[in-house]
Amino acid sequence: MIRLFAILIGLVFSGVALLSFGVGAYTFATEEHEATAEHEFHLAPKDVAYSFDGPFGKWDKVQLQRGYKVYKEVCAACHSLKFVSFRDLADLGYSEAQVKALAAEWQVPGIDPDTGEATLRPGLPTDRFPLVYPNDVAARAANNNAIPPDLSLMTKARHDGTNYVHSLLVGYADPATYKNAEGKSLAQEFPEFSTPPGLNFNPYFANLNLAMAAPLAADGQVTYDDGTTATVDQMATDVAAFLTWTAEPKMQQRKQTGLWFILFLVIATTLAYFSYRNIWSGKKPKKGSGE
Amino acid sequence: MSFPWANHYEPQNPLMKWVDEKLPLPRLVYNAVGAGYPVPRNLNYMYNFGVLAGFCLVLQIVTGVILAMHYAPNALVAFGSTEHTMRNVNWGWMLRYMHANGASFFFLVLYLHIFRGFYYGSYKAPREMIWLLGVVIFLLCMATAFMGYVLPWGQMSFWGAKVITGLFGAIPLVGEPLQIWLLGGYAPDNAALNRFFSLHFLLPFVIAGVVILHIWALHIPGSTNPTGVEVKKESDTVPFHPYYTAKDGFGLGVFLILYCLFVFFMPNALGHPDNYIEANPLSTPALIVPEWYFYPFYAILRAFTFDFILTAQLWGVLAMFSAILMWFFLPWLDRSPVRSASYRPLYRIFFWVLMVDMAALFYLGGAHAEEPYIMFSQLATAYYFLHFLVIVPIVSSIERPKPLPYSITEAVLGKDDDAQLGATVAAKA
What is the pTM of this model? Predict the structure, then answer.
C-alpha cells in the first residue's frame, strides 16, 4: 500500500518536473536567443603573479608599502578602509614611530576636549581608517549617485579578487574602438551598445559600465619612495597587493601555521596507518579482503 | 544489547572498580566504543564516516562556542564583529575558518555516510530506527547550517535568509503570516538575526542528543557490513577497540589533512564572495545561492517553473521538502531482503545513476537560473523522484539478487567450515 502511494507521488512530482522541462524546452527551442554584450564581452580577470601566492607565499612588504601609497593618494579620495586600524600598518614593515607618523597624517573624528563638540583630530595608531563620507546619501551626492564601496574586504568580496582589482584598474577602454582578444569589435557586434553618460566602459566589470572613472590615468601619478617606476600597471599591481593584505592581514600567518598542521598530520596519519596495519595483520586474509 | 561473545568490562585498578560501582561510565564507554562492542570484521572505508561526522559535530561545537564569545548578534554590528574576530582576536581567523569550513566538511561526511547507507541498505530492518534518527539529524544539521550562514550578516546571509524564509510564504493561506512570525518582521532584520543566533547555539546540542539515540539504536542490531549478511558468530566480528579505533584513527588523519588544506590554504573556496559584502536590503545580488551543501535541494526547488494546478513556486517548495522527507519512508519502499547493493545487480545500476544524478543536482543548484541549466535540473529532479519513489520499490520486487555468502567469515576468508549446509541452501534460493 505504502509503495503504491509512493509510486503515485513519485510519478506526480517527476511528471510535473518533466512538464516544466517540456514547456521550458519548447520555449528555449522556439524563442530567439539574443546574445548580450555583457555575456560576450565580459572578461575574467588576468592572472598576475604575487609574492603571496601559493602555500609558501609571503608578503612583499615593500610592495605593500607602495600599494598603501597608491591607496592613500588615489583611492582614499572616495573609498574607505573601515575595518583596518593604523596599528595594522606595522605588518607592512613600518616601525612604531613610523606608524604613529602615518596615522597622524589622517584626520579622524574626535571630540573637542573643551567643548565636547564633534571635531577632527590627527589619527592615532589605535584608530581605524576614517570614513570618507558621513553616510550613503553624502556618498551618492558626491559621486553621481554611486556609492564608492569600502575597500577593506574588496579582494575577498569578488571572484579572484586580487586579479580582479588589478584588471579593473588597468582595463578601462573606449567602447567605440574596443576589440576583445579574438579581435571582435564591440561597436560592430553590438551597434546599439552604449555607455551611459557618467559611466565608464570596462570589460572586467560585470555589466561593462561602472561609475568609477579610471583612477590610475597616467604613469607617474604616484611617486614611489623606493624608486620603482610607477606605471599604471605597477600601481594597479601594488594596490591590488595592498588590498589583499587589508582583506586578509593574517594570510601569511595562516599559511605558515597551515604548513605545520599539515606536516604534523602527515606524520600522525602515517603512524596511524602503520598501527592500523599492525593491529589488523592477523585478521586480514592473505589474498585480499572480501569486500 | 550486544553479541553474547562480547568482551566484559572487568576493571583491575581499585580506583576504576570503585568508580564502576558508583557510576559505570567507563563501562558504558567500553561497551559502546571500546573492546566490549563486537563489530563486523569486513567494514570498508565507507564505514569511517559515522565517526567522522561525530568528530565534526564536536569540532563545530568547540569552535562555535568560542566564536560566540566574540560575536554580536545585532544587525548593526554583526558583520563588523565577525571581522573583529578575523583581525583582532588571537587565532580568531583560524577559529572562524575552521568553523565555516567545518560546516562544509560536516556535510561532505554526512552525504558520504548517507550514500553509504543507500548502497549497503543500512536503512533496512532491523535498522529502521537508526535510519529515521539519521534523517532527523540531517534535517537538524540543515537547519543549523542555514541559520549559521545568516550570522555573519553578509549579502548572501541576508538574501539567503530572505529566499528560504520566503519559501514558507508560498504555502497557501497561512504562508505569509507564518513567514512574518518566523522572521519577526517583514524581512530579515535584527529580530531574525537574534533568534537565528539563539537557535544556532541551541540546535547542535539537540543534534548531539539525537546522535546519542542514533548510536544507541545502532548498538542493538550492530552495524551493517558490505555483504549485508548479519553477524552469525564470533569469527564474523572483531572488537571495536582496537580494530576500528585504529582504522578510524587513520581515516580521521586523512580527513584532517584534507580539511586543513582548505582551512589554511583555500579557506574561502567553498564560500561565496558576496558574503564579504555587508548585508544590504536595497541591493539584490546577481545570483542568490545557498552554500554548496544545499545545492541539490536548491536545484529541485528551482526546477519547477510551470504552474500546473498549483503554482510553480509551491510545487518547488513541496518537492524540495519531499526530497528529504521521503527518505523517512525508504525502509518500507525498498522491500528487497538483500541489503547490500553488491548482491543486487539491478539496484546497483540505479544507485550509480542516482549518484550521477546527485552530482548533476550539486552542479546545477549553484548555476545561474538560466537555460540550459534549468532544463537539466528539471530532468535531474524527475529522476530523483522516480528513483526513490518508483524505481526502488519496483526494482526490489522484480530483481533477482546474486547468491549471498554464508557468513561474513566466508566473505573475508573465502571459506567457512560451518557453511556447507548454508551454501547449498543459498545457491538454490
Answer: 0.94
